[in-house]
Write a structure and sequence with these properties.
TM_Tm6sf1/2, transmembrane, 3 domains, single chain, EXPERA, 4 strands, mainly alpha, transmembrane helix, two-stranded antiparallel sheet
Length: about 525
Amino acid sequence: MDAPTDLTASAMRRSRRRTLGKKPARLGFEDETSQEAEPTVATPQPASAAPSRPNSVSQVLAGITKNASPLRYRSRSTSRRQSLQSPLRVSLPGNLAAAPQQLFSDDEEEPEPSAGAADVEEPVSPQLAGHAAEEAHVTPVRVAAADQAADPQQEEADEEDEEPLMDPLLVTAGCAMASFLAIPFLYAVDAHPEVISDPVYMAVVGCVTLTAFPILVYYSIFRHMPRFQFDVFMLFFALFAFTSMVDLMLALTIDGRSTVMKWYLDAGESYLNSSYGFAANIFDATAHWLLYMVMIYGLSSHNPASWRYVYLYWCGSVMFSLINLLAGGTISHISHALQPSSFLNTPYVLFPLIFLKRVFDTPRPARRADAFCRPSVDFHFAIFFVLAMIAIYVRFAASAGSEWSLARAWREIEPTLTDETGFFRVFGYLGLCYHIPYCLVVVACLLLGANRVQTEVLTDISVLMAGGFMETYFCFCVSAVYKLTNEASRISDEQAPAFWTINVLLVLLTHVFAAHCIYSLPFKGLLSD
């Protein structure tokens, strides 16, 4: 009996090695092939007893169910990480699930895990566990994967992402409060006449202020905000909000309600001491200041798609403002009094162009169509823009001094175009060079159609032009009725209804069409098949 017994034990050990591989200890039981214990004699079972499974099955099940490490699922996002632990689950055939004790013979005890495996739990390799389950005719639902050491840099980055960002409202409020520092600063400068008497010193003080204020804002606001994703454009908008408060004091000085900026009007930008300069300063101190706060909030919220059209609107407004103001001051009747302080407007010329490139690179918001987009609406827009082109061209002829009958009739409605300052002549040339080409493009897209890309480009241009129309027409309308305008060039009560109707309709047309482009699908074209 010894020889058959040895052959039976040897066959069982070879079966275990084929199933478990070279490292059976990872499944939580001892490698009996490495022990010198005497072979166990298997007692033959009666013929009526149920057939027993080989011992390899019992050891596979013991190793899988006892020592399989839990499965960790990691779902990382920029806001949080979740760790879900789930133990290994296996699905057993019916005969194994009903009577697991039948896996062992009557004379053999279930093998105990080794001491090393009991103390230290090792994860199961997915390949080994799957192979063992396949040999045992079981179907694993989830197999535990070996936990890998996380990347320390990735862990640190995820922890940083989990930290809440500073509230954008606090950032906006801090920049708003910093902008009001312009008022005490101007009173402090006004108290030192030796500094403001020389135009060169005045320009130097302005340059130092434009450089020092962003540094002050950064070290007093942004540097002390934990985990705040800083954007350098916020400093520029905070600086422009500061200069908006300077423009507010300039407007009050022009209106005669204050004298704090009288020295700047005398030795700085003298062309601002006019009706158009008053209107431009009022618009910058109110509308532009509000736009700066909105844009700072948008940049701090890090959602560029939601604020894209606000950025475009401001770019159009400030660019048209600078074109009209600087060009008008250059050709005005007081152009001989231009001083180096006029070059302080250089940031307003360069920065909008740089920021416009940034805006064009930002993602576009989702475009959705509504009932507003109908062919009849496009037809009416085409008619209105054709009429707008005619009105803008006649106004240009009137501002240029044409003797055309329509130009003379237009000067009867808007006598402000004949004012001696050069702002209104530039206003007429802006209409010829920018407004009329824009109207032509719009009419062409409405009649001939535009694809998706062309519609998106037209939308950006329309928002830019809407901002430009708002600023230039606001300044034109306010200066036409302001007290500094010559009485002969001022709008009278008889001219007011036609004057306000024409200009308000032109502004509304550009804004309504810009909204139409934002919420419309690509134009099909009224003349297309």
